[in-house]
Write a structure and sequence with these properties.
The structure is a single chain. The protein has one domain: Rossmann fold, CATH 3.40.50. The protein contains eleven helices and seven strands.
Length: about 290
Amino acid sequence: MRKILLLSIAFITLLSMKNDKQAYRLFDQGGKKASYKDLIKEASEADIVFFGELHDNPICHWLEYEITADLYAEKGKNLILGAEMFEADNQLIVNEYLSGLIKEKNFEAEARLWPNYKTDYKRLLNFARDSSLAFIATNIPRRYASMVNKSGFEVLNTLDKKALQFMAPLPIQFDSTLSCYVEMVKMMGDAPSHSTSNITMAQAMKDATMAYFILQNYTPGKTFLHFNGSYHSDRFQSILWYLQQTNPKLKIVTISSVEQADLDELKKESEGLANFIIAIPESMSKSQ
């Protein structure tokens, strides 16, 4: 009788757990369920970790902070942070803020911050400040990406030499056959061909620049944790393609984020996106 009672309690417990609402579920590259512990272990052993976020998803931003804190617990001062959301020509003001040379209000007034900075990225930057970690502004200034979007790579040759220090060295390698850029062209649909060509060049310019500043600031023996939109690291392309052109021996771990109605299984089309894939309910509220 006691055995039947225990089995009944176990069944009810499992049933209630199954019916719990989940904020996210973690899968590996092949679509098998993975644990957060597995993610931290692999990330702590990597040279570079990419967290590919959905910009407006609060679960992504919460996990970015948690992963940062847990990697810091593992790596200490051997952790470097960096992000797409900060542009290379703002590195000086980022450094001034991290070192306490300027006040928060001055930093926020003068840096070109994303609209959701205060809710989603501020505490990452403050974590770096409070832990004495480097935080690297890896992205190309948006004005230069816009120039490429309008006129292609060639327009960069007209810039002053001082401007060139805020981007990957020219000329930029560009493989338009990479699926990340091919899919972008498909999404453009019936747009003029020069428009689709230029927009993929602008994306490649961002990817190349982020790869460049990651490599410029990475130190062997440390782990560089980089935050970016999932597009820039999905399927091990984009930024990763540029990294591999320079240093194919880097150990890289990628994280991607997807939204789906049911979290029991990873959607087939999301398999292979990254080493770890965070599946989040479609009904999750947005952060901006």
